[in-house]
Design goal:
Blueprint lengths: L2 E2 L7 H4 L2 E9 L3 H9 L10 E6 L10 E6 L4 E13 L4 E11 L4 E13 L2 E12 L6 H24 L2
Antiparallel strand pairs: 1-6, 2-8, 3-4, 4-5, 5-6, 6-7, 7-8
Length: 165
Amino acid sequence: MAYDLESFDEPFFDAAPMKYTIDVTLPVAPEVAWAEFTRQNTLDWCRALSSVTYTSPEPHHVGTTRSIALAPGLVKMNEVFFIWDEDAGASTYRHAFHGVQANIPGLKKFGEYTEVSPAEHGTRLVWKFAMELAGAGLPPFLSGPIANGAFGMVRTDTIKHFAAM
């Protein structure tokens, strides 16, 4: 069964009731980082995910669709990108999606924003996660530690992946 999620615009990433930001420097060129974030089966380095599959043909752009499955594959979501900007001349790249449908109830909105730009030594990655639950959610004293643990694992896995390249 599929549950529809609400769309949103870029300001939601800063205004969402539940949000998490990863802001790190990666020891690779921006083009390498961007290629990793936009390839088929991306995020295979993240233990929190079982699969990430682009369901639109390349080249990717606004309107591109993707499907994901969280580990161990029980939670699934379909996504659509509403931002897709690539400036190879400046080595700056960004994209953002919002969830369209999930196979579990309880989510009202979910999305990610990814920005890759040059840093003094490598690449600055800004990766924002934003969500709003439908109905009553967990109280902050429970949801905060759960979210910090899950997104902290994504952060750790991402740093390890790019350090090993």
